[in-house]
């Protein structure tokens, strides 16, 4: 989960928040994830929603929402200050800060050509969506992928060979390398097929016998 959280943070904020000085943020995201999976009686039986207030769930949700709102406000202000500093200085293109998700949203916010108003609350909601949809699901996928690879040494060896061949001795893998890793994509897709991250994901069923890429799929 920490790895997935770091990846989402780097994509959204430009840096990770798993260090000692950012422990409050990490704990907040953990509490947020736990509450997402908490049982809410009111969601299933609306007229029993008072139970959520009685057991403290509603208070916890409000508390986390307020804390997250404060954190997101701070992050937005930090990015706005950085953008203002860059715009006021003559910084060479090759030394400019690499834009992250928040930077792009802030730039789009001031663009009247998009035709869709994006205010501060919309930006915070989009960031929250990234955490809600990208943290636990990613960590669950990684755990299942590693588990399946350990159970299938032949697949693990083939994947290892592909990564070594395309990476060619480099110490890190970039997005351009990932585009070439077809077998890795297949492993990810097969993991998603076998172990959907969302437990209540609707299953798909073939209505008739079909053949796809040489494979017989029974109805």
Automatic annotation (TrEMBL):
Record keyword 4Fe-4S present: no
Transmembrane segments: none
InterPro entries: Cyt_P450, Cyt_P450_E_grp-I, Cyt_P450_sf
Gene3D superfamilies on file: Cytochrome P450 (1.10.630.10)
Keywords linked to the UniProt accession: Iron, Metal-binding
One Pfam family this sequence matches: p450
Metal-binding recorded as keyword: yes
GO molecular function ontology, one term from the record: oxidoreductase activity, acting on paired donors, with incorporation or reduction of molecular oxygen
Annotated PANTHER family: CYTOCHROME P450 71A2-LIKE (PTHR47955:SF15), CYTOCHROME P450 FAMILY 71 PROTEIN (PTHR47955)
Family: Belongs to the cytochrome P450 family.
Protein name: Costunolide synthase
